[in-house]
Backbone:
């Protein structure tokens, strides 16, 4: 899509410059310039497509293209989640849809909200950092009668 827009902008610019310069269509230069403009638009689109992941990594920016890749439900992480924990997978899907709808309602980035709700977060330690392991085990045993091992 970007290549088409760049090529169209090139054609408009080349046509305007040729018109202002008084060139006619009979000259072979107008056709060569038009083809050069189309090729330049195509080249720019390919160059950006190749360099975009590099720019994302270097500048620590996440583009909409990357977010669309992350929202793909055929990612190995999401497929594994769907097979091993279907309830968590369904919860993640619903959370992503709810976050997207909420973001659209307030004018925020809906795609970013959906991806943030869709992908599961991994935390090393789910306990409260101020609670020691021994205290949490005692509290669990006292309230439920079950001791985690």
Residues:
């Amino acid at each position: 899509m970007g290549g088409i827009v760049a090529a169209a902008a090139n054609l408009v610019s080349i046509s305007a410059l040729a018109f202002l310069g008084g060139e006619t269509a009979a000259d072979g230069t107008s056709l060569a310039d038009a083809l050069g403009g189309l090729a330049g638009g195509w080249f720019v689109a390919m160059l950006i497509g190749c360099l975009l992941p590099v720019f994302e990594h270097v500048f620590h920016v996440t583009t909409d293209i990357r977010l669309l890749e992350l929202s793909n439900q055929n990612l190995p992480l999401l497929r594994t989640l769907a097979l091993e924990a279907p309830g968590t997978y369904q919860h993640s899907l619903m959370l992503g849809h709810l976050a997207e709808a909420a973001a659209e309602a307030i004018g925020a980035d809906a795609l970013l909200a959906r991806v943030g709700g869709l992908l599961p977060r991994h935390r090393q330690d789910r306990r409260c950092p101020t609670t020691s392991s021994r205290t949490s085990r005692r509290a669990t045993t006292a309230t439920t009668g079950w001791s985690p091992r």
About this structure: DSSP finds seven helices and no strands in the chain.
